[in-house]
Amino acid sequence: MGYERFVARRYLRSGRFFISVSTWITILGVALGVGVVCFVMSMHNGFEAEIRTRLLGTTSHISIFPVREEFIANYRALVDSLARVPGVAAASPFIYYKAAIASESAGDGIIVRGIVPELERRASQIEKNIVGGTYNFNEIVIADDTVPGIILGKNLADRLGAVLGSEVVLYSLKGDEIRSNTRPRVAKFYVAGIFESGMFEFDSELAYISLPAAQRLFRTGDAVTTIHLRLDDVYRAEAIRPVVDSLLEHRFEVVPWNVLHRNLFAWIAIEKKVLFLGFILIVLVAAFSIISTLVMLTMEKRAEIGILKTIGSTPGSIRKIFVYKGLGIGAGGVAGGWGLALAAAWLQNRYHLVSLPPDIYFISYLPIDIHPVDFLLAGLVTVAICFLAALYPAHQASRVSVVEVLRR
Questions:
Q1: Which of 17, 13, 6, 25 lies closest to 290 in space, CA to CA?
Q2: Which of 149, 243, 228 is nearest to 194 (CA)?
Q3: Percent of the chain surpassing pLDDT 90
Q4: Which of 145, 157, 270, 335 is the residue whose CA sits 20 to 30 A from 233?
Q5: Does one domain contain both 231 and 336?
Q6: Which residue did the predictor score with more confidence, 252 or 182?
Q7: Quick one: 19 and 103 in the same domain?
Q8: Could you give the CA distance from residue 48 to residue 404 in angstroms, rounded to a whole number?
């Protein structure tokens, strides 16, 4: 260890009371800045992960749409082939159209998804999201009519005043030419289940029916509108996309989740960068404290600096002493900030100190997801800022005149 670092460590622990307290206050300021940056970034990561989990639990990792035709006719063979692709956990076909729905007390426009229950339970989390009733579309007899089941989003069911077992009616004009005497097709269903995904748009606008019922209602014949895939690793969607595209001989549009929901996740990524830049300003404020602390230390240690120069220390060595002290303040602040962020993250995940109203947000508390890369980046930026902040005081210290010191 060079003597410059030894002297810098002595300076870090010594000094007049005011300068010593100022040093520790500066370290605390840096620690708070780093802690806030790391905690907020981790909170943002947790929020993003929660959105991704809930969104992809209802939609899909990769969606396949027809290009030249309106429907996918040979969907059974395609589903079997796609399910065997390495990395694909499940494949499921469905029909996705708009329709009108009416209950005894209200009506609304919704999105109807016709699914194959056995395949869909492996490709999405719809069955796990059932909060009332059961995951089935079995037909029952009501007043001499055979009525199939429907599963409604919780907010949609509340808006319609629909409860388990109550009847609703779907209306569709899909497949008909619009004329003055055109009447919508009508299909009656009973509420077999109610789901809650946690995403407001899905819970207030989405309803599930069986694929055969959807084919009859929308007059698609023995065809579907989309096939979606669930992957073993959601982050391999871009890598698996060309494999699926090649298997389908480029006859369909293959869209991974990050492209399908590009606007949402692009906004989240931009927000994360803005948050990081904003909270780095806290560290910059602490950097001014480093400058003032080192300037005061230079004034206090003028005699000692003169002695060091007298015994042969060069201006470069003097600069190193003060730069090392600035880096020591930065390193101490980074270590303290990491500790504060980790402690706050543990407390938040365990005790849910920051809660959210569940009737407004889709989660009841802010989850924390720690990414070591974020901590490392915040630490490196902080140390770099502290290094730059120490340059000016270090330069001023190196210019102390030996003659002037000895004269005093």
A1: 25
A2: 149
A3: 55
A4: 270
A5: no
A6: 252
A7: no
A8: 60
